[in-house]
Amino acid sequence: MNYPVIVINYKTYLETAGKRGLELAKNAEKVHADTGVDIIICPQMPDVSMIASEVDIPVFAQHADAFPPGGHTGAVTLEVLKEAGCVGTLINHSERRMNFADTEHIVSLARSMNMETIICTNNTAVSAAAAALSPDAVAVEPPELIGGDISVTTADPEIVKESVEIVKKINPNVEVLCGAGVKNGNDVLKSIELGSRGVLLASGVAKAKEPAKVLNELVEGIIKKI
Amino acid sequence: MNYPVIVINYKTYLETAGKRGLELAKNAEKVHADTGVDIIICPQMPDVSMIASEVDIPVFAQHADAFPPGGHTGAVTLEVLKEAGCVGTLINHSERRMNFADTEHIVSLARSMNMETIICTNNTAVSAAAAALSPDAVAVEPPELIGGDISVTTADPEIVKESVEIVKKINPNVEVLCGAGVKNGNDVLKSIELGSRGVLLASGVAKAKEPAKVLNELVEGIIKKI
Amino acid sequence: MNYPVIVINYKTYLETAGKRGLELAKNAEKVHADTGVDIIICPQMPDVSMIASEVDIPVFAQHADAFPPGGHTGAVTLEVLKEAGCVGTLINHSERRMNFADTEHIVSLARSMNMETIICTNNTAVSAAAAALSPDAVAVEPPELIGGDISVTTADPEIVKESVEIVKKINPNVEVLCGAGVKNGNDVLKSIELGSRGVLLASGVAKAKEPAKVLNELVEGIIKKI
Amino acid sequence: MNYPVIVINYKTYLETAGKRGLELAKNAEKVHADTGVDIIICPQMPDVSMIASEVDIPVFAQHADAFPPGGHTGAVTLEVLKEAGCVGTLINHSERRMNFADTEHIVSLARSMNMETIICTNNTAVSAAAAALSPDAVAVEPPELIGGDISVTTADPEIVKESVEIVKKINPNVEVLCGAGVKNGNDVLKSIELGSRGVLLASGVAKAKEPAKVLNELVEGIIKKI
C-alpha cells in the first residue's frame, strides 16, 4: 500500500453488486488517475475476478479463510484470491470476526505470497494485539459507529490516537487506518491529523447517490493535507 | 434443473481456480452441447461472475449466507449471486454446514427469487430433514467418503436408496442426488439405478489429469441409462 | 417426558445463577409435588450437576455439543451431562443454533443413551425438518417474540397449529411444545388448545419478582385443561 | 495465580466427568496441601459448581462466552462462573478458539471482576498478540503436540523460549505457561528452565491410571527447581 489510502469496502450492499460495483471501481480508478491518491477497493466476493480484470487499482478481498487449497466448499483461499487479481485482503472485520490463530495464519501466508493484509479491530487493546501479528496495517473501527452518520474521527478521536500510539510501540512498521461513519473529506483530513494513514469506509460511498462525487470529496481531504 | 444432472463442485482446489476453472467450465459446456446431458458447475467464489459470463450452462454457488444485502463484510448473499449469473446454490455442504434456520431461509428466499437449491446431507435422517424444507434437490454424501477413491454407490448404496425413499415420502417434489467418491460413468449409472437423479462430484473432475475426458466418461453413464 | 409439560430455560440470567437457580429448582419441585404437573428445568451449565443432585424433577441441558468424550476443551458432551444428572437436552435454540448433522447426531446419540431431546425451531418449515429427525419433541418459538411481553399463543397462534399439523404428519411420535413470550396460565392453556403439549419459557419465570407465584399460575393453566 | 503453577484441564474426558472429576480435584488439593505447589483445575462445565464447592484450590473454567447475562441459551458467562466458584478461566484454547474482540472482552471483564485469565496460543506470534491484551498469563501449546506423547519442552523448546521473550517484551506483567504433551516432572522442570512459569496439561493426568501418582511426579519437577 501507498499511504495515505482510502479503502472502499463494498460489503454486501445491493448498490455495489455486479455492474454497479464495476462502475464504482471505474470511478475509483478515475479519481486515482486524476489525483494520484491511492484507493483500494474490496468488491463483493463473486465479483472479485471480474472487477479486478477491469481496473488498474489495487483490489483487496473483504475476507479470506484460513484453509489451504483443497476440499473446503464455500471457502475462499488466499491462493484463489491472488489468481483472481487481489493484492491483499481485509481480515477480522467486525462483521466477520476471526480467531487469533486463523488471523495469524492469513497474515503470515499473505506475507509469503507478497499479498498485503489489513486487520480490522474494534478497540485500542485489539489494535495492539493485531499489531503484534505484523500485518501491513491495522484499521480500527468502533463497531457501534459502523454504518452510522458520525465519523469515528468526531465521535471517538481518542481511539484513533491511542491505536496509533500503541500500534507504533508494538511494531513501528504497521500503519493505522481508521473507519466507521467516515463520509467526507473533513473526516479523512481529521483521521490523518490523528495519526492514521487512511480510512476504511463502506456505506458512505456505497450508498451515496453520487459515489463519484463522494470519492472526489474524500480525496480532497487527503490532498489538502499532503 | 433438468435431470439427470451432473453437478461439479470446484471446492477450493488450485486446479479449479481462475483460468483453469474457466477452462473446466468451457469443457463442461462442450460436453453438454455434444450430449444434451445437463451439467451444473459451482465455481470458486471469486470467479463466479467471471465464469458465469463466459459459459451457457447453469452456474450454482457453493454456498450462500443467510444475510440480507447490507453491512455483512465477507458474506455472499443470494442477491449478489443472482446478479453474478448464478441460477442456484448448494447449501449445507459437509465442508460448510449450516444451521436449520439459515438453511430454511436460503431455500425459501431462493424459491422467491426463482433460484434453485440443493441441500447437501450426510445421512438418511438428515436427508429427511432437508426434504422437509422443500429444496429442489437433496444431495446425500457420506462425509467419510468425500474426496476418497470409492464411490458412495459402491461403498454405501443403501444410503442412496434410503434417502430416495424417505425424501420422496416427505416431499415427492424433491429430487435426490448423491455424491462422494464418484469418479466415472459406472458410478453415475449406478447412482441412477439406485433412484438418484444425478451426482455431485468434485475431486474426480477437478483433480483429473484430463478433466474433459472424465466429464465425457461421466456423461456416458447417463447416456447409457436414458 | 410426561405431557403436558412446562420447560423452564434458565438461559444466562443473573436471576437463575447459583443459589437463586437452586431455589428456582426447589420451587419447581414443590409445584410439581403439589400438583403433579411435570416441570423440566434447564439450569445454567456450570450449575447442572449441583442442581440435579438437589431436586427430584427432570433436569435438561440447554445445549449439548456434537463431540465425543475426549480432547474438546470448553465443550459439553451428552456423556458428562448424563453423569451430571441430566435426562435430556434442548438443542438448536434460537440463541444457540446448530447445524443439521450435529443436531441429528445429538438426537440419535441421546436416544441410544435413553436421554430425551427437544429441538427448538423458529418456524413451521423448520419444525417439519426437526420432526424428521425424530426427537422426543419440537419446541417452536418465533425468535422475534422470545424474551418479549406477548405470548406466541396470542401473537402467532397459527405457527403453533401449523407446527402441530406438519410435525404429526411427518412423525406422529413427536410432540410439539411452543414458547416465546409465555408468561401465565392463560398462555399455557391457550398453547394446549392449539395442540401443543406444553410450553418452553425463560424470562417469564426467571425474571419474575416471585417465581414461585408465576410457576403456580402457569400450572393452573394446565390443571384447568386436564 | 501463584507461580509456578500446574493447570489441569479436564477437557471432556470420560475419566474427568462427575465423581471421577471430583476425585481428581481432591487429589490435586491433597498434593497442594502436601507440597505447597499451586494447582489449578478446570473441571467439565456441568461439574464446575459441584466441584468448586468441594475443594479449596483454585478452579478455572475451560472457556467463557463473551455474552452478558441474559437471553443466551447454552452460553456460559463470567458472572455465572464466578458465582459457581471459579476464580478465572482459560480462553482461546486450540480446541475452542475465539476471535480477538471476544477474547479482549473476556480478559477485560475478568479483570474488572477480579477473575484471572489464561489465553491459550498456538505459536509465538499469537503469544505476542495475546500478551498485548494483558491477560494474567499466556499458555503456548503447539496444536500438533496436544494430546500426544512428546512434551512441547522436548519437541519444540524454542516456541517456549521465544514466547517468553516476546511476551515479556510486550507486557512484562504477563506470565508464560506452556503445554502439549506434558506428562511428568522432567517436562515441568524443563518448562521452567525455559522461562515459563508453569504448565497446562490434560490427558497426562486425566487419562493416567493413577492420576494422584502423576500429580506427585509433576510437582516434584517444580520442587526440584524451587
Feature tags:
homotetramer; 226 residues; alpha/beta; TIM Barrel; 10 helices
Written account of the structure:
The structure is a homotetramer of 226-residue chains. The first copy, chain A, is of the alpha/beta class. Chain A has one domain (5-225): TIM Barrel, CATH 3.20.20.70. The first copy, chain A, has helices at 18-35, 48-52, 78-83, 100-112, 124-131, 152-155, 157-170, 185-193, 203-206, 211-225; strands at residues 5-9, 38-42, 60-61, 88-91, 116-121, 137-140, 175-179, 198-201. Chain A has an eight-stranded parallel sheet. Chain A is globular, with a radius of gyration of 16 Å. The mean pLDDT of chain A is 95. The interface between A and B is large, with 44 and 44 residues.
